[in-house]
Structure formats: C-alpha cells, structure tokens
C-alpha cells in the first residue's frame, strides 16, 4: 500500500498505482484541510481517518477495528447499481454492434476505396482513475503524417471525402462499442479526451480530473446537450461542468434517458 505526503507528486503516484481511494491520516484538522486541497482535484474517493479521538467500537466505519473514519468524498459508482450498469453496457453494446454492422461494413469499404488500409484508428485516452487505454475509431483522415493532437475542423484538408460524412453522424465512434465490451468504456459517461488535452485542461480547471471517477462513455450528458465536436477552452469548461453534474446525479434511469436522447442528438448536433 503506497504511503505518501502532500509534498510528493500526487498525480504520478495515483496513476502509477492506479489508486481509486486515498486515506487522509488526521492528527490535526488544519493539516487535514491542507492535504485535501492538494488531492480534492483528483478522481479518487477520500476517507478521513481519525488518529486522535477515541473510536466508537460500534461504528461501522472502523479501520483495523481501532481508528474511526469518515467519508469525505465518495463516488456514486459502486455496488449493485454499478453491476447493473456494467451488465447493461455489455448487453447494449452487443445489440448496437449487430444493428450497426451494415453501416460499419459500408463505411469501411468507402475508406478502403478512397485511401486503402488501415480502417481503424487508435489513440491513447484516459479512463477510470487515470488508467490509459487505446480508443478505437474508424479512420477518417488521410494516411500522411501530421500532428494528431491538432483538432479536426469542418473544412479540414486532412479529412477523407467520406470522412466528412462519417464524422458528421458519429459513425466513426461505433468501434468504441468494442471498448465497452473490453471494459475500458461505458455506453454513457464523460467522453474521453486525448491524454495531451487532459494534461492541458487539468492545469486550467481545478476539478477537471474528477471527470475520471467512472468509465468514460460513448455518449454523455454534455454531448446530448450539444457540447460535441470542435472544442475551445470555454466549451471544454462547459463540458466539464456537465460531466461533473452527471457524476453527482448518476442513476440507471439517467443513463437510459441519455441513450435515448443520443439518437436524436446525433442528427441535431452534427460532428466535425
């Protein structure tokens, strides 16, 4: 179990050990406040362990039957509801893949005819608790070398002719259903951004990294509210705010609502 102080590189420690929970050992409440300020921005649950006060032996929140702890910030994604969400993800991803197979085949054929192989594009993204994974998309850009961190715009010269249509209706996102089957993503959750963008915006917005308190999603609360496509700093801030609202209000019914609304949003809020 890694032990560290507030003077160390907390983010590197959390990502290296893939930690989802931090215990703050409290000797002095003032010191506790300083510690929390340093870690509150990360996507971890926080428990405060009281090392001074005498513990209530009847308490259900006891560490080693000796130290009482209190929950400071706990994710809603746990227990039976999380299990149900995972089961729904697996079932729905299989159903959606079967339904989307003809669209995928036609799109793949268009890409091959225009620019050959490969059909699939992959990129590092950030998942739950900062874990890295490879996201899958249909390739919509030419094969020439270029900076892949530069955002794609509506009139981008790097796009394939068929790429504009594929991106407009989010057909390029369909292969991410395999990411859902592999457990890296969920049907609904905050959209995963390139790692470089996560680093950039975690420095701009204090609570940005809290978006990683659950699996990233194929669709999300921000997307069904029109926040998709090309992003600016102000738009990314709104995305973050919508994602944090989703994390704080998550339920299975909310997920189902977002899934149904996504089909409407794909046509109303077209991608770049």
Can you describe what's shown?
- This protein is α/β, with parallel strands linked by helices and 272 residues long.
- The chain folds into two domains: 10-73, no CATH class; 79-268, no CATH class.
- Helices cover 44% and strands 15% of the residues.
- It is built from nine helices and eight strands.
- The strands form three sheets. A four-stranded mixed sheet has the order 1-2-4-3, covered by helices on one side. A two-stranded antiparallel ribbon has the order 5-6.
- Helix 3 (79-115) packs antiparallel against helix 4 and helix 3 (79-115) runs antiparallel to helix 5 (176-182).
- The model has no long low-confidence stretch (mean pLDDT 88).
Keyphrases for this structure?
alpha/beta; two-stranded antiparallel sheet; 9 helices; elongated
Layout of helices and strands, plus pairs?
Layout: H1 10-17, E1 21-26, H2 29-39, E2 45-50, E3 62-63, E4 67-73, H3 79-115, E5 120-126, E6 132-138, H4 161-168, H5 176-182, E7 186-188, H6 195-204, E8 217-219, H7 221-224, H8 233-249, H9 252-268
Helix pairs in contact: 3-4, 3-5
Walk across the major sheet and give the strand order: 1-2-4-3
Query: What is the H-and-E element order?
Result: HEHEEEHEEHHEHEHHH
Task: Count up the helices.
Answer: 9
Fraction of residues in helix: 40-55%
Our estimate of the beta-strand percent is: 15-25%
Provide the structure class.
Answer: alpha/beta
- Over the alpha carbons, how many angstroms does the gyration radius reach? 21 Å
- Rough outline: elongated
Number of domains: 2
DSSP strand tally: 8
Which runs of at least 5 residues are low in confidence (pLDDT < 50)? Answer: none
Q: Quick one: biggest sheet?
A: 4 strands, mixed
**Overall pLDDT, averaged?**
88
- How far apart are the first and last residues' alpha carbons, in Å? 45 Å
């Amino acid at each position: 179990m890694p032990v560290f102080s507030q003077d160390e590189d907390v983010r590197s420690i959390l990502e290296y050990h893939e930690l989802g929970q931090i215990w703050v050992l409290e000797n002095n409440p003032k010191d506790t406040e300083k510690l929390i300020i340093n870690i509150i921005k990360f996507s971890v649950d926080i428990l405060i362990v009281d090392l001074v006060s005498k513990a209530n032996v009847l308490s259900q929140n006891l560490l080693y039957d000796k130290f009482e702890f209190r929950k400071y910030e706990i994710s809603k994604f746990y227990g039976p509801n999380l299990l149900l969400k995972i089961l729904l993800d697996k079932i729905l991803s299989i159903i959606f893949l079967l339904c989307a197979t003809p669209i995928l085949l036609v799109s793949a054929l268009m890409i091959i005819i225009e620019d050959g192989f490969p059909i699939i594009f992959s990129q590092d993204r950030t998942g739950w608790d900062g874990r890295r994974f490879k996201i899958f998309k249909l390739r919509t850009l030419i094969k020439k070398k270029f900076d892949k961190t530069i955002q794609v715009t509506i009139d981008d010269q790097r796009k394939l002719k068929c790429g504009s249509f594929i991106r407009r209706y989010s057909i390029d996102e369909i292969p991410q259903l395999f990411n859902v089957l592999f457990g890296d993503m969920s049907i609904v959750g905050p959209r995963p951004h390139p790692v470089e963008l996560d680093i950039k915006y975690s420095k701009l917005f204090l609570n940005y990294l809290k978006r990683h308190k659950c699996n990233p999603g194929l669709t999300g609360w921000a997307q069904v509210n029109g926040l998709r496509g090309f992003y600016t700093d102000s738009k990314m801030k709104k995305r973050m705010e919508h994602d944090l609202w989703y994390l704080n209000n998550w339920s299975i019914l909310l997920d189902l609502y977002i899934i149904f609304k996504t089909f409407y949003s794909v046509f109303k809020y077209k991608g770049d």
